[in-house]
Amino acid sequence: MCRGVGRTPPALTMEAPVLSALARFSVRHRWWVIALWLLAVVGAALGAGSVGGSFSNDLTLSNTDSQAAYDTLRTRYPELSGDGMQVVIHSDSGVTSAKVKAAVTDAAAEVRGSQDVAAVQSPYGPGPAMVSDDGRTALATVQFTERAKDVPAESVEAAQEAFGPVREAGAQVEYSGAVLQEENGPSGSEAIGLAAAVLVLLVAFGSVFAMVVPLLTAVFALALGMSVLTMVAEVATIGTSGPVVAAMIGLGVGIDYALLVVTRHREGMHAGHPPEESIRLALTTAGRSVLVAGATVIVAILSLYLIGIQFVSALGLASAITVAATLLAAVTLLPALLAVFGAGLDRFRVRRLRFDHGTGQVSGWHRWTGHVQRRPWPYLLASAAVLIAMAIPLFSLRLGTADGGSAPEGSTERRAYELIARDFGPGWTGPLVVTAQFDGQESKAAVNRQAGALRTELRSTEGVQEVRPPRLDEAGTTAVYTVVPKSSPDDKSTEQLVHRLREDVLPDAADGAETHLGGTTATAIDLADRLGSKMVWFMSFVVGLSFLLLMVEFRSLVVPLKAAVMNLLSVGAAYGVVVAVFQWGWGAGLLGAEAGPVESFAPVMLFAVLFGLSMDYEVFLLSRVREEYLRSGDSSKSVRDGVAATARVITAAASVMVVVFGSFQLNDQRTVNLFGFGLAVAIAIDASLVRLVLVPAVMALLGRSAWWMPRRLQRLLPHLPGEATATATAGLHTPVARMSTTAGEDQRAGALGEPPAQREAAEGERMPQPRP
């Protein structure tokens, strides 16, 4: 009952015409909708099989020194401009034995004449030998004509097969290099995540049928999204981590979004609505929140394009495709599935059904929220202190790219890395390339003297293990050097060496020459520097965009600001935990991960995804709080009712995400492990400490001022379809008739967002009465 009005309050209007129409269509034509989805999934799978592309890493970075070095190689040394593959030969009896040496020489000759191969450097010459001091390990290099993303997999396999006889000669053969890019589609992690999600949903719903619907919706959406992603890979270069990260995010949000709509539908049926009407109400309330939240996730992820690095933006595109598929399934397939089960959705129960709101009773969530509201400052300060403490490791964040030492245990890349690092030195696992273009007017002898002097200067630089003799181009004006650091590619000292060479050594030692430093290691360092320099403004853009969206959604300036600050705290805490585990190595062994730098693109990618997902729970919770506030006008009670109505479903949704993301720790890619761990930690923090402690505490302190917005600004803001603009409501808990009010009435509600319920109490008899 509305305060001051001794009669049944009118119902809240949340009509979203498009969603309402979609709900009616999907309910009436449920079998056609399901059939269309089956056809879409099968058709997309067939399309992916026939015209789908492959996944490869393209680390092209415009306007960087490493890219300039590559451009010089492409112009002056076409045969060296492609990416390479290192072939490591090891034999305890020695690689200089006649049998092994003959097999290696024959293999190198065979590969040298292969398609897509520019050059092959035998470990025995001509040129500097590449045999370890103990004579047990040799290193051959296969140079391809193209960058890794353009080298056909068949050419790489043919080169590896050519070295097969070396194994028959009794030697161990391992491979490493940029061209060894594995395809990474869905793996067993998804199945484990689904199995864990089944248990969580069964506990949350207590009904087998209610558990099946979100899973079916998510699986259909994931199948469609992954097939579309494979077809997009034919026209766009998407990294090898793209499909796994996209599957992880798509599966998590797919189950989550369906769970939220199903929960609202069950609540409506519990209140007495027939299934068809309850489905429509669920889609126009929870479904609308899902669309707003999903749109926030997509916008945040696609904002990665603003960074200007194709590799990073392509990962965002992959994730956005699967999230878009889950939204489409949530507003079309999900209502059809709910209509099929109808009133029997809660059959085959495994436990007694429980509802925490709309029953007229005070639940445990009501009591907990009230407890926090009575002591807001202690809970606010304590939870904020915990989050800040967890975020402290973030200040030692070091971006980079993990080297072969972080490759999966037992892989050929890992074995090759260990052999090279042990017998040649860790720097040989990622040597640097220096190009120097001298004055073309000078004599060849003068260029040779300058090239030799530059080599001497490079060799004397601290941190350099070896510099191979320079190789001049045909014109005799450009030299290329192989510079081997003393440290591994992902070591901080290697990063310092690259900057020292660029800033101090090369400008002074090669006076008058145009010099550039490149190679795979330098490219990774340039990627980290570029992303590090753009992180702050990128994050500011995502936060600002989310702020504007929430301001329009909730008609408030304070709520979006609160959401931004809290989401930044939860994301910062997740970052801190990631740094502690994956960079410092705290407990990394328990996850099967190796300590090293945080992948350079991980922070921006994680921020885009995490901020979007955090906004999901913000929208779900505060949408319900605003409904209750518009109904009752009591800011304190609306928070208690809103938390009680959403806490169980948010907890269940977060649990699903945590187990799905956590299951990806079983993947053998360090990048995927890092993403899965970071997402799981962030969601757990956000759904527990933030939503159930910080939000009630802050809302208690803010009171009605949480909904403050200047009248003039409120008139300027657009209204989203289906926005709550009516007075009080009992209509979502009891099957009463609905009533509309205009957007203008809501705009006149007052500078503090005065709920129409209080305005109507004064209007008295002018308010029409709903029929029970």
TrEMBL record:
Query: What species does this protein belong to?
Result: Streptomyces finlayi
Q: Which keywords fit this entry according to its UniProt record?
A: Cell membrane, Membrane, Transmembrane, Transmembrane helix
Record-annotated membrane-spanning stretches: 31-51, 191-212, 219-238, 244-262, 290-311, 317-345, 377-396, 535-552, 564-586, 601-622, 643-664, 676-702
Known PROSITE patterns for this protein?
SSD
Highest taxon listed in the record's lineage: Bacteria
Record region (Disordered)? 739-772
This protein is called MMPL family transporter
Please provide one cellular component term from the Gene Ontology annotations of this protein: plasma membrane
Main localization of the protein described in the UniProt heading: membrane
